[in-house]
């Protein structure tokens, strides 16, 4: 065998191995999730590549991950309910169990056709939330899939939309604020009716003539530590960035900080850290410590 054909077969072998690994590691909803609510309103389609949730007058629907994670980077692509989605809420979040649970939330509040969705975020630590920040998006989230990610390490939690950081929750254990670090979380999502509060504070009701309402999910990726029988193993399970563990000490670089400021300046609708009316005795302690809460 000549050296060049040897080189070629080595390359071919490499490509075959890589593509089979990629196939193994590509997201598959059958393998990663259980449909937990709403009977046939939750569906896995296209051989596990697509998941849909729907909501009608009788029920919403939901799913949850089979695995529990303790730190990592979790990505999912969502395409939200199109048209008149007023009154609907699509929640996508990480949560542990029990009364002192930790939780990291994305919630998408629907709206009338042509009016903007609100992306609502929150962080619960040891059962305590009340840390809402809300944003408009800089695109129409119902036209295409967009990537919503959570980076969660010991120093901070970063919420990202299409890789743009929109929110950072820093570890403030030094001043006595609990940080999610020892309760493993599952990934959850659900689509439900919340027309008593979601759209313009409950003023706009769900138009049931438009039901069923449908949201779409694809390309789940957990580059994360999986929790199983009391231990955590941090494999990277990623189709595109094979051994990417940058989430473990991810900080915002100059570009990231600039993007974060841009989002917070032009797209932020609500920030609990600015709500003096709500906290007449003084803002929560973590608010004073960081410009980016
Ligand atoms: C819906 O649109 C109105 C403007 O028409 C806006 O004030 C509101 O923030 C939007 N979003 C929600 C969830 O109410």
Automatic annotation (TrEMBL):
<dbReference type="GO" id="GO:0004553">
    <property type="term" value="F:hydrolase activity, hydrolyzing O-glycosyl compounds"/>
</dbReference>
<feature type="glycosylation site" description="N-linked (GlcNAc...) asparagine">
    <location>
        <position position="111"/>
    </location>
</feature>
<dbReference type="GO" id="GO:0071555">
    <property type="term" value="P:cell wall organization"/>
</dbReference>
<keyword id="KW-0964">Secreted</keyword>
<keyword id="KW-0326">Glycosidase</keyword>
<keyword id="KW-1015">Disulfide bond</keyword>
<keyword id="KW-0325">Glycoprotein</keyword>
<dbReference type="Pfam" id="PF06955">
    <property type="entry name" value="XET_C"/>
</dbReference>
<keyword id="KW-0052">Apoplast</keyword>
<dbReference type="InterPro" id="IPR016455">
    <property type="entry name" value="XTH"/>
</dbReference>
<comment type="similarity">
    <text>Belongs to the glycosyl hydrolase 16 family.</text>
</comment>
<dbReference type="GO" id="GO:0048046">
    <property type="term" value="C:apoplast"/>
</dbReference>
<dbReference type="InterPro" id="IPR000757">
    <property type="entry name" value="Beta-glucanase-like"/>
</dbReference>
<keyword id="KW-0732">Signal</keyword>
<keyword id="KW-0134">Cell wall</keyword>
<feature type="signal peptide">
    <location>
        <begin position="1"/>
        <end position="26"/>
    </location>
</feature>
<keyword id="KW-0808">Transferase</keyword>
<keyword id="KW-0378">Hydrolase</keyword>
<dbReference type="Pfam" id="PF00722">
    <property type="entry name" value="Glyco_hydro_16"/>
</dbReference>
<comment type="function">
    <text>Catalyzes xyloglucan endohydrolysis (XEH) and/or endotransglycosylation (XET). Cleaves and religates xyloglucan polymers, an essential constituent of the primary cell wall, and thereby participates in cell wall construction of growing tissues.</text>
</comment>
<dbReference type="GO" id="GO:0010411">
    <property type="term" value="P:xyloglucan metabolic process"/>
</dbReference>
<protein>
    <recommendedName>
        <fullName>Xyloglucan endotransglucosylase/hydrolase</fullName>
        <ecNumber>2.4.1.207</ecNumber>
    </recommendedName>
</protein>
<dbReference type="InterPro" id="IPR013320">
    <property type="entry name" value="ConA-like_dom_sf"/>
</dbReference>
<feature type="domain" description="GH16">
    <location>
        <begin position="23"/>
        <end position="217"/>
    </location>
</feature>
<dbReference type="InterPro" id="IPR008263">
    <property type="entry name" value="GH16_AS"/>
</dbReference>
<dbReference type="GO" id="GO:0016762">
    <property type="term" value="F:xyloglucan:xyloglucosyl transferase activity"/>
</dbReference>
<dbReference type="InterPro" id="IPR044791">
    <property type="entry name" value="Beta-glucanase/XTH"/>
</dbReference>
<feature type="active site" description="Nucleophile">
    <location>
        <position position="103"/>
    </location>
</feature>
<dbReference type="GO" id="GO:0042546">
    <property type="term" value="P:cell wall biogenesis"/>
</dbReference>
<feature type="active site" description="Proton donor">
    <location>
        <position position="107"/>
    </location>
</feature>
<dbReference type="InterPro" id="IPR010713">
    <property type="entry name" value="XET_C"/>
</dbReference>
<keyword id="KW-0961">Cell wall biogenesis/degradation</keyword>
